[in-house]
Amino acid sequence: MSELDFLCPDLAQADPERGFEPLARSAMQRRFSESGGKFEAQAGWLVLTAPSTQRSAGPFVGDVSHQAKIEVRGPAPQAANDREIVAIGPDRWLVLCSGEVAGSVRASVEEPGRIVIDQTAALAGLKIEGAEAQTLMRRLTDLDLDGLPAVGAVAKVPAIVLRDGPESFRIFVPQQSSDYVCEVALDAAAVLGRGPAA
Amino acid sequence: MSGAPGGGIASRLLPRKGEKIDRTSPISFLWSNKRIEAFRGDTIASALFAAGERVFSRSFKYHRPRGLYCCSGHCPNCMVQVGRTPNVRSCVEPVREGMVVKPQNVLGSLNRDLLEITDKVGGPFTPVGFYYRTMIHPRRAWPLYERVLRNVAGLGRIDKLARRAGRFDMEHRHVEVLVVGGGRSGIAAAEDAAGSGRQVLLIDELGVGDGLHIPGVEVIAPARAIGIYEGKLVPVDAGNILYRIRAERIVVATGAMEQPLLFPGNDLPGVMLPMGVRRLINDWSLKPGDVAVVIGAGSESLAVADDLTGAGVRVADVVDLRSRMPKLFARGSKGRLVAVGIDGDEQECDLLVASGGRQPNYSLLAQAGAVIEYDPARGIFVPTVLPDGIEAVGSVAGEMRRGAVPAATLTGTGGADKSFVCICEDVTEKDMKRAIAEGFEGIELAKRYTTVTMGPCQGKFCHLPCIRMYAKQTTTDEATIGTTTARPPWSPVSLGVLAGRGIEPTEKTAIHHRHLAMGATMMWAGSWLRPHSYGDAEAEVKAVHNALGLIDVSTLGKLLVIGPDAAVFLERMYPNKFADLKTGRIRYGVLATDGARIFDDGTIGRLSENVFYVTTTSTGAETVLEWFEWWNAIWQLDIEIFNVTGALAALNVAGPRVRELMPRLADLDVSNESFKYLDLKQAQVAGVMCILLRIGFVGELGYEIHFPSPFGEYMWDKILEVGADLGIRPFGVEAQRVLRLEKMHILAGQDTDSESNVVEAGMPWIVKWDKDDFVGKWSLEEVQRRGLKAKLVGFQMAEHSIPPEGGQIVLDGNPIGRVTSCRWSEEVDKVIGMAWVPTALAEEGAALSIKVNGSLEVATVTLKPFFDADGRRLRS
């Protein structure tokens, strides 16, 4: 057992006999649920599986908080198929992977000279995609969208922003601010024609 | 004059090629409660003009009638109120079905404004700056004067009860090339850049975007650049969106602006600039008058005569200022132009198209740092040196045949009417001369004294004329007078556009929605929202004392300090020791500045040899993180600091029955022998990996449980579920404040201020003087040397009155101390509190006089905690 295990959501264990069935939920889950989003339990997390609105145009706003986020300080971690590596500062990296492999990824990047901290719980993830996703992003951040990934501010909150395609982005923000950022994103998306999404 | 859709028969011309109105789409709106018919593509002003209106506003100071002048959204003459929004430039505001439009700054009606009396008889009493001289006595009357002035003068009125007039968004853009201006030169520059494969964005203040399609160029129009800021940041006002554009290269193609001529009566309705007349005829197919006189300084200005003839206007006279400089005046009757005097001859007319030539619109360039110099040959100011990455093309760069006409703008004579240098602020030629006579000889001082160039046009129509005036009156030249400092905004911008959506970051714990569901009243703690109470704070206190209480303390700041030098680092940061802190143990710590001023506190737990877990106050995480990083940037110790505040939710479960609760949640020996006070352990609680801290801010036996925040609601529910039969209930910040006060635990920032140090705050035990050094040590030694001036003590009131926090402690009628915290405690059966008092009064049992609601109440000093003074319950 590591002295930092208490940071790792994936180490939660169900004990049905005692009534312990921990299920992680993102800080935005309520907001998406209230607007009709459907969630399902997947690998210990409540995951948004169906969008809450089905309008035909405009950007989708989704929730990818269940994605594991592992911060590494020190030399760059090795690339592998099961992970994305994002530079977030000098000798600072964010390793993104599925929650199911979080433990093995953590173990694989732990080496002398590196400090590894699981930040899955610290960072909530928003997904912005679809028509006018770029316009929505421009209304949320002053980051150069052609220069992503980058660290900056989204809706005045510190964020790590990734671009997955011309109209597809992910934003990671402190979870305690994510409900607010989600509210701002949905508000901005509404005038562009769309609400929450899977 | 009105009746047919789209306006009066006399004003609206037959369909013309290139007109911007759609005659198949009629629109109607209200103007002064009168229905006006218009066409899609009309602006408010064009529709009103078509309906026969000629007076659109009353002027700022003299309430003179004003008519359409530039028709380009620059001058103040057409400003109206639309709905609740004042100062809308009707010449560029498209008509919308059902809109309600009213005149502004009028007492009565536009045609009969009672405040016009200031023009008729007020002139001698209201020269420039009169309020500086005539309204200073008696001083107490100034508020009255001010109210009168504000009511009589000015522009539109803000509806104080109105909320946001509409939705305003902000959009950030990054482009390689930004072209400001969609005229010929701007389009050519955009095409050239796009042809080179650059990403190009073009903005234009008129609505050319509708029909302007340049391959590879994005066009935003209508939109106005507000300024050019550092880092090539160009804010652009596009109505309901403020674009914040950062460009690698900025091409300014703002063209040149036709300049007014200065002559008596130059503001009468019917006096227009050529560009305004062209827009009336060509864009909206309107006949601008019946009989016109054209005065201009070049072929471009004079060519408007052809437009007029084509529109059926009789052009009675054309004066080319290149060949003669006439003495000029305009005469009005009933607020309209009726004649023009040229060298003594009067010509009846209802339209005078007058232009003193064109001046480059260099203001954006000047804001960006361009050098602006006077070109005497052409009589204009031109940019001569441009900052890196900023270019000027076309007329703004001075690429034009002829500039303004120096003499013509000064030749007004022969009429009795006022001659306006600045139509925005009603500054006359006489005003300017008076300012010079009073010693305001510099143009910058004159600007401040007369307010010339400070009105809605931002100097577009008055800057050059007033410089010329100054040059002539002071017998110097324009180059010597120079220009005023160019500052944003180049064009007026609404506060709504600048404010945007009004979003303010809010932090919520992972259990926030549970608190709401349980009926909590929420309160702000910095940017966090926390439960104040769940309806009955007193009962919540009782639950903690008698059974079990549960509070969400996720807002605590949480940092990890990791590395071989972690203990050394903490030794230097805090006044107490950490090198000897054993793994699994916790110590309280107070952070102070180098001046020994307390700014935060919390606990420090050792997770392993090189890993420490630091908690801070709810609002202190970022400050402490910054403080740590700032110091380590100097010390260069081998540590890394992580902010894990949001990563971990935290619950404090406390009360005499907590040892019954914990085994139901965790396979953990919570006996006092195995899990001592100030122990820290990692364990699974309800299936979730947690760290448990046995600390006691609320004074009862209890544990803080810190765990990954996504399990916040789960853990909250589970603890309440398994503790239900033990009498557990949630408690909020109010109950917590009572409980901690009973224990005399301080709240940093509440019981301390920017002058407080740990010695005077009653915590000398925390300072380990034998340490080599720590932040603030020298200052604390100075405090010891000078002796203590005040101390933080507890007090209890003799009666039940509760002093306000910040309330005065009084001795012999003088304030000698202040209350920092105060609450009624059911447990103590007293009003208890903490206060700063002079050292002499910091004695057990000393009497205090505290001001409560204006009278002095008796209190007694207490040095030990009010509850569980020996800590038996806490440590049991």
Care to describe what's here?
The complex is a heterodimer of chains A (198) and B (876). With 198 residues, chain A is α+β, with helices and mostly antiparallel strands. Helices cover 20% and strands 33% of the residues of chain A. Chain A is built from 4 helices and 11 strands, in the order αββββββαββαβββα. In chain A, the strands form 3 sheets. Chain A has a 5-stranded antiparallel β-sheet, with helices on one face. Chain A has a 4-stranded antiparallel β-sheet with strand order 5-6-4-7, with helices on one face. The longest helix of chain A has 18 residues, at 175-192. Chain B is α+β, with helices and mostly antiparallel strands and 876 residues long. Chain B contains 23 helices and 47 strands. In chain B, strands 8, 9, 10, 11, 12, 13 and 25 form a 7-stranded mixed β-sheet that branches. In chain B, strand 43 (808-811) and strand 44 form a beta hairpin. In chain B, helix 10 (429-437) packs across helix 12 (463-473) and helix 16 packs across helix 21. The longest helix of chain B has 15 residues, at 621-635. Chain B is elongated and about 110 Å long. Chain B starts with 21 loop residues before the first strand and ends with a helix. Mean pLDDT of chain B is 92; it is low at 1-9.
